[in-house]
Amino acid sequence: MNKSGRNSNLPKHCTRWLAGVLLLATGAAHAELGGNFASVQSEVQRLNGTLRTIAMPSYDVHEIQMNGHVIERQYMNRAGQVFGISWKSKGSSNLQPMLGAYFSQYQALGPRRIDLHHAALSTPDLVVEVGSFLQTFTGRAYVPNQVPSGVAVSEIH
Amino acid sequence: MKNFIENLRMNFGWLAGALLGATLIAGCGGGGGGSGGTQPPSLHNLATITVDGDFNTLNSLFISVQICQHGSITNCVTVDHVAIDTGSIGLRVLANSLNSLNANFLTNLPTVSVTASTNANLTGPLAECEQFGGGYTWGSVRNVDITITGTNESASNIPMQVIGDLGDSQPTCASESTTGYQLTGGSNGTANALTNTNLGSNGLLGVSLFQWDCIACLTTAQPQEGNPATANLAYVVCPDMTGNNCQPTTATLAQQVANPIPGFATDNNGYIIAINAVTATAGSSMAVTGTMTFGIGTQSNNALGSATKYNADPESEPGVVQTTWNGTAYTSVFDTGSSAYYFANTSNPAIALCAAPYNQLYCPGGANAVANSPGTTLSLNATLQDYSSDASPTQSLAFSVTNPLTNYTGSTIASDNIGGTVVFNYFIWGMPYFYGHKTYFGIADITPSTLAVVTGPYYAL
To answer: Distance, in angstroms, between A71 CA and closest chain B CA?
Structure first.
């Protein structure tokens, strides 16, 4: 028997973000676009993951690992604000808790479908890119005007 | 310029709203058939495949499939323009396309039935919610006999998904989708107008390196994924076949939407995709054809030969290999379901992106470049390895990326030089790679009774 499938033998390092989060009290800070360090810590706790912080010249990368796999990165500027987030998960990623206050904008505008496996929304205020292969889902989101000057968006990965 | 942009929008389905109207709704679904091409007698393992721009697509690879009610030789349809997707598993066909071919086909086609022995709570027809990066498919699961048109390759009693026969949406499936779009087609069996919900084909032939759709669904009604583990809708039982009152259920392997190739008699351990080269920078405005040959090492026409094999990850992240680009190793796949190369913009200087809202695509030379001027087409290289770099062969693969807004014409339907940044932490060898190449796909855990040379999962070039 092979090992493919939604769940199969993959490390359970993924996310169905929505369910776990909505059960929490409304207004609780979560790891989300526009969040802060408290929200990063709350996400680490929710995922029961481990946090590694990498200091870059003009921002910090808060990297959340599960079972040795990086499942989420949060990019925080010197104002303490999460300006970018990236993720990789087995199973489709619900974007609502990750996009936080930006989710309604994402929903209202709607991403463009690029091909069967990719879609993106690109506005001056919000960029969201999503893709999949064999039920692994990956993506990133960032707020262009909060990206520190001199930082290439390719650094959000 | 307007034409170019409209074309790009059209090709990528990048436009919500019916900009283009009926003239661009390609004729299709007329019964297809007969795309056998030339093949040696007695080797009926080779199908003709095409990139012809139908359904307003750029770089979509189509095949024709005959689908029969299991056990029947009369309740059959031949569905052309089924998109070959090496990044998913199983045959999924639009209900509207099936209905337009034969109004009685679905009526007479039984659904897979969930019985008390497989689900203690509910019995009835089985349906599925399947997620893709660009949207989701939703509809019933039905057993069929699948034959690749023009070949003798048949798989008997394989579940397929009928897309859209249970209504136009499923709230939970939609909420779990990264886009919320149900991928559908028009009521006449043709493509939707240019919307984000356009499937872009009559169906999908998912032929990844694996056989089964959802191993976890064997034991779990909604597979627990992630940590904290949360439930994901997959298979459901829908007692009244309306899409209402459906309940999550487990599904046995025999009930699951499956890659049909392992079900073939002998040519079942993989396949070879070979597509003619596209040489013009502007791509091709004519159909580009190729072949899909079934089996690897099972016939005289499908030997692995001198191709180099790259082992794919069997387990941790199934189907991936490794590509090193600009000094960084990325998880990587060969995916006919991706219309472009996708890779991180880590070049120095960075490759120019197209103007918003197309700024997930590369536009070397910038938006205002003169057509075909220097710098609008880049020659690039990346290095392929096994998923584990231990003792792996390596190969440098050349590819090019052009400025589609500048260099494509309004009728470009196939191109080997379009790239994008979406999925920045992978390197996706999408459809542009396949032109002018012969690519082997070794399916995991299938050992043909004769002449088996290697077992998958692997890609070989």
So the answer is: 10
* Residue written as token pair 């872009």: B200
Q: Where are the domains of chain A?
A: 17-155
Contacts of B204 in chain A (CB under 8 A): 116
* Backbone torsions φ then ψ of A149, nearest 5 degrees: -65, 140
Segment 241-260 of chain B within 8 Å of chain A by CB: none
Cβ–Cβ pairs < 8 A, chains A and B? 274
Interface ipTM: 0.89
What is the phi-psi region of residue B253: left when phi exceeds 0, alpha when psi lies from -120 to 50, beta otherwise? alpha
pLDDT category at B167 given cuts 50, 70, 90 is: confident
Structure tokens, B224? 């627990």
Query: H-type helices in B67-114, by residue range?
Result: 95-101
Q: Output the six-digit token pair for B349.
A: 């200087």
pTM of the model: 0.89
Residues A83-124: tens digit of each pLDDT: 999 988 877 777 887 888 899 999 999 999 999 999 999 999
Q: Chain B: nearest CA to A19, how far in angstroms?
A: 6
Helix or strand holding residue A39 (H, E): helix A37-47
B305-460 maps to CATH 3.40.1000: no
B-chain CB neighbours of A106 within 8 Å are none
CB contact under 8 A, B216 and A111: no
Alpha carbon distance A87, A85 (integer Å): 7
DSSP-assigned beta bridge partners for residue B441: B271, B459
Q: Assign residue A20 a region: left if phi > 0, alpha if psi is -120 to 50, beta otherwise?
A: alpha
Length of chain A: 157
Q: Is B325 on the interface with A (CB under 8 A)?
A: no
Higher-scoring residue by pLDDT: A31, B99: B99
**Domain coordinates in residue numbering, chain B:** 2-263, 305-460
Distance (Å) from the C-alpha of residue B317 to the closest C-alpha of chain A? 6
Nearest chain B residue to A89, by CA: B226
CA distance A28 to B188: 48
